[in-house]
Specification:
Shape: elongated
Helix content: over 70%
Largest sheet: none
Mean pLDDT: 90
Radius of gyration: 19 Å
Number of strands: 0
Structural class: mainly alpha
Order of helices and strands: HHHHHHHHHH
Length: 198
């Protein structure tokens, strides 16, 4: 059974997460938070010890929502090579999907926290490492069952794919042009066909 306090905390996170994501940690004030939630400063601090704790909880919420969508998309196939194609397929709609939430939370918080909040930056790095580990695991599974070439270095390839995706997202948002994502997903698909597939 969810307590009233847990419900309130969840409501605060869900309401404030897109604001933190769009405005950044430093630019989001406590008055922005109270205005959006309709709660008092005391009610906010009754649930979170400080703004940083709320920002971290909001970031985790955004990433969890996003990861759930990626996993759901990848679950359309059990084949590791198909999962790689499903990842690029998911990211083809990423710009439109994340635009509604104020941009890519990993990119936004990573850039925002880099020089301002080491604790938030650490959370971003952990998420990136987790994504790359999961990608590497898919590649390793593909090597094991003969779908992916034994010449492929799983972690190197995972980092390369993730770098291409993150770079494309950065360019799409900076230039306000989805071309960068579409073109990069084409390049990733070619890479899977020509360099990764057994």
């Amino acid at each position: 059974m969810i307590t009233k306090a847990e419900k309130t905390a969840a409501f605060i996170i869900e309401t404030v997460a897109p604001i933190f994501n769009k405005n950044g940690y430093a630019a989001t004030s406590i008055s922005d938070i109270t205005k959006a939630t309709g709660l008092t400063k005391g009610a906010i601090y009754g649930n979170f010890k400080n703004k940083e704790e709320l920002a971290i909880a909001s970031f985790k919420f955004m990433v969890k929502s996003l990861m759930k969508e990626i996993v759901k998309h990848m679950d359309k196939s059990d084949s590791p090579i198909e999962k790689l194609f499903l990842i690029s397929d998911f990211y083809r709609n990423y710009y439109l999907y994340t635009n509604k939430m104020g941009g890519c939370p990993i990119l936004n918080v990573g850039v925002d926290a880099n020089n301002q909040n080491s604790l938030l930056l650490e959370k971003v790095r952990t998420i990136i490492e987790r994504i790359q580990d999961q990608l590497a695991t898919i590649i390793e599974e593909g090597i094991e069952i003969g779908e992916i070439s034994t010449e492929v270095n799983a972690m190197y390839t995972a980092k390369r794919i993730d770098t291409m995706i993150q770079g494309a997202i950065f360019m799409a948002y900076t230039m306000n042009d989805d071309f960068y994502i579409q073109d990069t997903m084409d390049q990733i698909d070619k890479m899977i066909h020509n360099e990764i597939k057994a």
